[in-house]
Amino acid sequence: MKALIVGSLVFALGAPFAAGTLNARAQGVESAPQAAQEISAEDRAEALRMDPRTLPRAAAGAWVNWTPQQPPPDAVRAIFASGVRAYQEGDYAAALAQVHDVLRRAPDHPGALYQGSAAYFRLRRYGDCAVLAERFVEVAPNEVGATQVLGHAYYTLGEYERALAHYGRVVAASPNSVEAWRGLGLSRLRLGDADGALTALDKTLELRPQHSDALVWRAQALIELERPEQALESALRGRDLAPFEPRAWFVLGELFAALGRPDDAEAARARFVELSRIDQQVRAQEALLLTDPRAIEPRVRLVRLHATAGDRENVRENIARLERLLPANFDVGLLALEAHTALGDHEAAEQVVGEIEKRFEKEPAAWAAIESYWRARGDDDRMRRAADRRKALITGGR
Amino acid sequence: MLHWLPLIVCATQDPPTPALFFDDAEALGDVRTTCGSRAKNYIIEVNGGGLALCDFDGDGDLDLLVVDGSTLEREASGEPGFPPRLMLNDGGGKFSPAPESWAMSAGRWGMGCAVGDVDGDGWLDVYVTQWGGDRMFTNRDGRGFTDVSSRWIPNSGRWGTSAAFLDYDRDGRLDLYVVNYLAFDPKTISPPGGGCTWKGHPVMCGPEGLTPVHDQLLRNVGLMLTDRLGFSDASAAAKVRPEEAGFGLGVTTLDYDGDGDTDLYVANDSTPNFLWENQGDGTFREVGLARGVAYDMNGKEQAGMGIAAGDVNGDGREDLFVTNFSGESNALYLSKGGVAYSERAGPAGLGGPSITRLGWGTALEDFDLDGNLDAFVLNGHVYPQADLFGTDTSYAQAAQLFRGDAKGRFATEPLLDGPPLVLRASSVGDIDGDGDVDIAAIELDGRVRIFRNRLERSAKEGPHWLTVRLRSPDGNRFALGGRVWVEWEGGARVREIRTSGGFQSSIEPQAHFGLGKARVARRVRAQWPTGEVLELEDVAVDRVLTLERPKSR
């Protein structure tokens, strides 16, 4: 599941789309095209400009028998499927363009409302997200258990009481909704109910023990309940699961200080500051990608930033995105080599070297990079072989 | 008979309760400020000017100093900015322009101001922050200002925003902390369309991507009567030099650790806030992260604008409230005892209602005189594009009043009736002498506004109040850094004497207390920054109590 930074929070939104009842397969879009339909820049801009409150409404009860397994009407099925694909590719403006199209042709189609609310959430347009999510709950009340996104939207807009109430509805309908339990915990914490927050976060962790963010927020609840030893245990577990997340170190700094461990506090704060600076830059790059998901430069910067933090998983993910955007591109290969080397991820780096050798064997620059890599690794034999290939290519075999 | 029903329903409905404050358009007349173009193409154009509500002419009421800005066109043509203006209070809350003797020369582009008696003559002087060359004006015995900028202060040429007077080295002379924002050059910064976006909209650039500039600590070296500078830049010597500069916007003084010397808290935009802990030996140490006041509860840096300090939960320790950008919660740093703070805006009720707004001027005062501190926040976005689609906010925004209870929880209500405004700096004080606290506010590119407190009170039933001023016969004459404790039946509160706080603004050096129904203050304890203590019992209320420093130490 991809974690999404939303304002000051990290929410995981993936569940209903990856494995929930409202994913593409459940909505009869197995025949969706492999790639999303190309949406023009003009249509994407228009989709962003459009106020979802102006979308037409259906007659009351029009979708009363709708279920997530029901395919969209024939007239909109292909558009809907393409919108789902665009969403999955991170192209939220294109997803919205198609969602709006579906909703104009099939007013209040629950699947499109749901998909639209998710896209608005990803675009950090929480008010618009709430508009479509509220409509969804209205037309498909039996599916309220999948609408934690509406709680997330209220929470992010600072409407903690409404968030709390909605998360309550979600967990009543879907007692195993991990993110709703987590949202419930955070809402209670914001409203000063640390005991209630702890209960909800414990439930989150019962459902998903490796939920690093819930562990760190659980530590926060325990701090407020003046149980620092237990808080420390929870924060350390959270930190171990997500060592590149600044907040875990932030909480650890506070806890170590409270427990009279000034050196540990100092070290945790130093790591927090380091990760926090990187995180700020990461958020700036991710914001650029929201409306221009195919932009290359922000993605390249993300690779380098995650490499600086030591975050192998995010480096690999962003390189994979770049490779999809720029297949067989020499610069992407070099970037991957640079990043994996910086991370000390020799396995990944050597795979990249192999790819570069295969794909760019006629390029002297490729062999220069490989030569450089083996030099840094201290492998003189392979460094010399690469140097020889480079020289041979330059001299044309003379 | 059915047709009667709606009429009956209407007749029995209570009229809506008016907001506690109203915009008194007649108090000041049409005084306006300028801050660049309305398009707000550059970051220099968005912060607005500053205010001070202080008694400059010594007649016992609060006068209003307005710091004005400029335009890029004036700047490009070499014209100075618009000069600061003083408006004198007639004692009843009506202001009129001060005579020519109070005229203040214009600088490049005025921003904020700080007020303090820098030369120890018993009159409040003024420091005006600017983009490019701050200015200082001394008060000639309540008869006018003299521009001493070129002789008394080093000309840094930086973009100053807020400033605070304090006596950090306890030599009896007021020193000055100047908050600086960023390195701004319109020739090198892209206008909207130059690649800077917010929520998908092209907007003016900054502060991210621009270069923050270090703040300055100016030490008062007491050489005003010679040809030498009155202030020297002591930033390096005092170790006020963080590893990385912040985009500074707000500052307040406070003795956060209760060790008797004055510390400084700085709100930074998009960078962690600073807490400068006075080491008592002429140097400072930055402890914002260690004390829990640099980031929000999520461990995220925020876009700090204005600051208010006050003891919101009555535990005897001052807390800190910081206004922030839209999409962020305003922050309440609650003192946990000892020296640590914990960010608790959400549980206090100050967080959620702030998230869709962008806050600036603020203060913690007891506006309804019930004995508990309240807060207000003036709001307004920096981007006119906030009115476009998908922003979850707007350019003009309603100002908010947060009424506090004894436990430090706040309930939100509108500060004013009427349409939302694009507001910025504020200063507070009892403008009309009726015992409650009023507000002066800058509307960006609009009128300077007086928000009068319409609290109803009676001499018998109250609610009652007490304002305490501390005076010293020499040196730090207004006792900045002093403390006042007041106990009454049903409550107790401590306040520190300062002129800093809010955003780009200054206030009268005094401590105001709401006392609810208590007709007497059981105990008033005053401590001067030099350590002397005076205690009084059964003090009459509903008055301004001026206490002279006791002679014996």
What layout of secondary structure does this protein have?
The complex is a heterodimer of chains A (398) and B (553).
Chain A: E1 3-6, E2 9-12, H1 15-18, H2 41-49, H3 74-88, H4 92-105, H5 110-122, H6 126-139, H7 148-156, H8 160-173, H9 178-190, H10 194-207, H11 212-224, H12 228-241, H13 246-258, H14 262-291, H15 297-309, H16 312-325, H17 330-343, H18 346-359, H19 364-377, H20 380-395
Antiparallel strand pairs in A: 1-2
Chain B: H1 5-12, E1 21-23, H2 25-28, E2 50-54, E3 63-67, H3 72-76, E4 85-89, E5 95-97, E6 110-116, E7 125-130, E8 135-139, E9 145-147, H4 149-152, E10 160-166, E11 175-180, E12 197-198, E13 201-202, E14 216-220, E15 231-233, E16 247-254, E17 263-269, E18 274-278, E19 284-286, H5 288-291, E20 307-310, E21 319-322, E22 331-335, E23 341-343, H6 345-348, E24 359-365, E25 374-379, E26 400-404, E27 410-414, E28 423-429, E29 438-443, E30 448-453, E31 464-471, E32 483-488, E33 491-496, E34 505-507, E35 511-516, E36 520-527, E37 533-540, E38 543-548
Parallel strand pairs in B: 2-34, 31-38
Antiparallel strand pairs in B: 1-30, 2-3, 3-4, 4-5, 6-7, 7-8, 8-9, 10-11, 11-14, 12-13, 14-15, 16-17, 17-18, 18-19, 20-21, 21-22, 22-23, 24-25, 25-26, 26-27, 28-29, 29-30, 31-35, 32-33, 32-36, 36-37
